[in-house]
Amino acid sequence: MIAVQKRDKNVTPSKEDYLKAIWSLSERTGGRQEVSTGDLAGALSVSPPAVSKMLKQMERQELVAHVPYYGVRLTDKGRGIALKIVRRHRLLECFLADTLGYASASVHDEAERLEHHISDEFEQRIDLLLGHPQHCPHGSPIPSLLGHISKPKGSLLS
Fold this sequence. Notes:
It contains six helices and two strands. It has 158 residues and is mainly alpha-helical. The chain has a domain of 67 residues: Winged helix-like DNA-binding domain superfamily/Winged helix DNA-binding domain (Arc Repressor Mutant, subunit A), CATH 1.10.10.10.
């Protein structure tokens, strides 16, 4: 288990988006750690050369590790930051839907705009106010402060 990281001033919102995208793509492929740069470019709607440039910067910060011929994977530090952003995003979705009355169809885009700009204290207050929700309005689990993600119970329809 990897603890959720505190905010690092050297990790820009753009880098946070990359970390979250790498984490999400990795989770969708059954936990495969490496993510192709092409898949990452598609997920972020940027060019493959832009991805390569950003990944080099992130590798210098020890946020990601490039695996030749396989792609990129998160380091423990990068995974902790990714989980922090995922946690904030999903808590914000809950707050927007449950407290402010946003429609569940619109909470994702609003949370995307806010997730990089709230403080740790604001995040903790949302969590407390909402009674420590376990899932966002879309049913995705919210990572704990220690980086634990509950696995859904049941079986896949496929």
